[in-house]
Structures are given as structure tokens and as C-alpha cells.
Amino acid sequence: MIFMSDDPRPRSKEDPAGRIAVLADQCVLCGLCQPHCPTYVLDANEAESPRGRIRLAQALASGELTADATIRLPLDHCLSCLNCESVCPSGVCFGELLIQTRALLGPRPDRPTALLGLLTRPRLARSLLALARGLRIRRWAHRLPWLFGNAERAALALLPTRGTLRTARALPPFSGAMGRVALFQGCVSGLADSAALDAARHLLRAAGFRVHTLPPVCCGAIDLHDGATASAAAAAGRVARDWADQPADTLLCITPGCLGTLRRDLPDVIVEDAMGFLGRHVERLQFRPLDERVALHMPCTQNNVARNGAVVRALLDRVPGLDVRELPATPGCCGAAGSHGLTFPERAERLRDRVLGHLAPLSPDRLLSSNIGCRLHLAAGDHALATEHPLTLLARQLQPGTHH
Ligand code: SF4
Ligand code: SF4
Fold this sequence. Notes:
Number of strands: 8
Number of domains: 4
Number of helices: 23
Shape: globular
Helix content: 40-55%
CATH topology of the largest domain: Rossmann fold
Low-confidence stretches: 1-11, 162-168
Bound molecules: iron/sulfur cluster
Strand content: 5-15%
Radius of gyration: 21 Å
């Protein structure tokens, strides 16, 4: 399977084909990334590996191949986990290469665009979620296949429970002496992870920061990674307008899945992962003991975009008595991966089962994961554990009276 060509088409470094050519040229085809790729581990197929995808992208960009359904499928299966990028000795920017390739291809014809459009509009989604619960719609999904396709059924399986929508207790007093930060609440996390948002406010105020919150809007990550470039650009514009109204110096997000896209949306702004930020101010916080064992799932984006898995572990280690057992990094991605869990639910379940297979030997009391997409997907798997964001646990254990 050789795709190299004389590449007769002119290339501009600005258009996706030109960008792909430049980025793909960095790959020396060494294959060191292969064993770190979850889809290569799953399928044992070169086309489903980073190296195979780079060569496919190269051939599509040069016009040597056309994007029929068979050719684009391995590219659509890519999870954007960036495990390959983090181990590549040649510094191949695989994430950018994939974004450009998907921009070149455009969204899959069977992309659940209407469903994704709903999920990324939190106010509308919140109303419909309440209606879905009222009608007990999850019970009907399998009986009405003409109404609920695979993607809709996969989304219903992820419906958050009432517990995950619960908000935390009253915020502690604060001095604001440490500065001002703004929290990005996003779309799905704004909808399904208000407990973690409240926890972040709680901890940041206790550390002495004045906390502002952006309105619930989507950062555009799902559209960007699906090749829906116009919608991604519109989302970036909304984020930039909302940020312009904030009197803060730093934008923090609680879900590392939004981090990379927010940094693209706001290239001149300091955008940080909230746990990474808190890790630098943890000396200002004290925690009550907790005699529990937790399994810690480290999302790909925590490791490969925020790159601060050690900080997350160190924060949790501040809780006396807490026994933190991290799930093994290999085989990596749980399969949620933006829209992947909705578009390819069967593959997503297989990837999830591999991750959850490591739970039983740890005998944890609960499962922690910082990425809302991962957490909803993991929570829908075959186990009975409570799941939450590490920030939620930390805020619950905050020593009363810890504030500056
Ligand atoms: S992406 Fe990097 S690690 Fe993978 S084959 Fe290319 S050069 Fe090697
Ligand atoms: S981003 Fe993840 S799934 Fe995609 S090629 Fe790289 S390692 Fe494999």
C-alpha cells in the first residue's frame, strides 16, 4: 500500500491540502507511534494507525486518492487522542494534520449533525433533557427505530442522572486578592457537569481568586474535529465575543477536551486547565481526610493537551487518607472522543470495555475522570460505580474555613 506520488497539483501552505503536505512530510515512517494508537491496537490494521493515516492524508491531499467511503473510514475512526503525537520523535503535529484532513474531507455524510447541534446548544438541550426525562424517553428508544437511530440511542444512553446535574453548596467568602479568572463552562459540561463547575468556583475562591463565568457556549471542538469548519469558526467567534466582556486575566476550563480548541479560538489569551492552575496554588487549600479508594481515569486530552496528569494526581494526593489508583494508560482512549461515541457506538463500546476491564482489580469506591465526554461514556458502561470530576471530590473535602 504505497501512496507516494509525484504530486502534480500546486500546493499553497494556507489551504488544507498544502498544510497536510507540509505536516505529513515531517513523518519519517518509523512506526514508533503504532503501539500507542488505540485503534491500531483494536484493529491491527496499518490503515487504522497514525502512520497509515498520515499516508492516506498525504495521498488525498495530493489527489492520488479520492475520498470514497472506504478510504475515508480509517480517518473517520481516528479518536484525536494524540497519543501518537506525544510519542513521536520527529515532532509530527498529528492533531493539526487531522484537523486539516477533516477540513479537506468535510463532515461524514451520516454525521448526526442535528443531534450534535442540539448538544452544543446548552439552553435548548437543557429544556429537551427535562422533557426526555419526563416522557421516560430512554425506555422508548429501542421500540421506535424509525425515530431513534444509532447516534440518538447512544446519546440517550449517556443521559446524565439527576445527581450529575445537582449543584454544589453555597460558595465560600473570598478576597479576590490573588486576581481574577474566568471559567469556561462550555456546552455539554455546562449542561451535565454543573457540580464540577461549582466545585471549580469553590476551590478558586477559597484560593483567593475572584471568579467570573462565561455564558454556556460551545468552543467548537466537535465541529472542528468533524470537518464542519464553518460551524467551528462561528463557535470561535462567539467565544471571542464572550471573552471580550470578561474582566479577567486568565480563562480556565474544567474539561481538558475544550482546551486545545479554546487556545485556537483565543490565541492571545492565557487559557489553562483549571486543575493545572489550582496545582500552582494548592498550598492555599486544606482538605479533610477521606477514607476511600478511587480509580482515576486520565483522559487523553489531560495527558496530551493539558499535559498535566501528574498535577491532577498531586492535587488528589493532598486529601489525607485518599487512595488514588490510576487506570493504566494503555490502551488509552475510552472511545468517547468528541462525536466518535455517537457516530461509531460499537467501536466506542469496545474501547470503553478495555478501559473498564482494569477497574475490578482496583476495587474502587468511585471513578474519577475530568473530561465530561469520557465520564458520561464511562458511566454508561458495565459497572455500578459513582463517577465524578476530581474537582468535585476536592471541593467536597475542602476544609471549612479555608479561604483567603
Ligand atoms: S508519526 Fe512520528 S512516530 Fe509515527 S511513524 Fe511518523 S515519525 Fe514515526
Ligand atoms: S490520534 Fe489517537 S487514534 Fe488517531 S492515529 Fe493518533 S493515536 Fe491513533
